[in-house]
Amino acid sequence: MATEHHYQELIDIFDNCFQDEFNTRLIKGDDEPIYLPADEEIPYHRVVFAHGYYASGMHEISHWLIAGKARRELVDFGYWYCPDGRDAETQSKFEDVEVKPQAQEWLLCVAANFPFNVSCDNLSGDFDPDRIAFQRRVHAQVMVYLQEGIPARTAKLIEALREYYQTPPLAAEQFPWPEDLN
Hints:
The chain is mainly alpha-helical. The chain has helices spanning about 5-20, 55-65, 90-110, 130-150, 150-165; strands spanning about 25-30, 35, 45-50.
């Protein structure tokens, strides 16, 4: 079992799963993450993650997995994003749209035996987000996926990660309740 996680492993696994069928590649970026659809210059879609950080790759992949076909034709999936420094109302809206991607990210992380941390992504905000409450929402969505089924693209990537990292099938016990986390 691999104990260290290198971004190239994640690139290879992702590309092997999705490059042919979805014309999409995972790309190590030098700056902020972004999703770029194919264009006149580059004939394939790009999920660009920040600075070669494995965790950033996992997070950006989770957004790609959530995006439907029409959204995958738009820069950054056409999603709204308000940068760090959000007020309480804007942070609440941000968390609403992040529950499902972060739940899928948690599934991927467990499949890869990689640590997962929810991201409230508001270090410069004028208040402290309730990280535990947000993680409870993400945890609840993970349980829904485990009980009702994991979307097909996500399931395909989970299996590829499990095979590469030699991890067991996903089960509810692998996803601790927020208070149980250290």
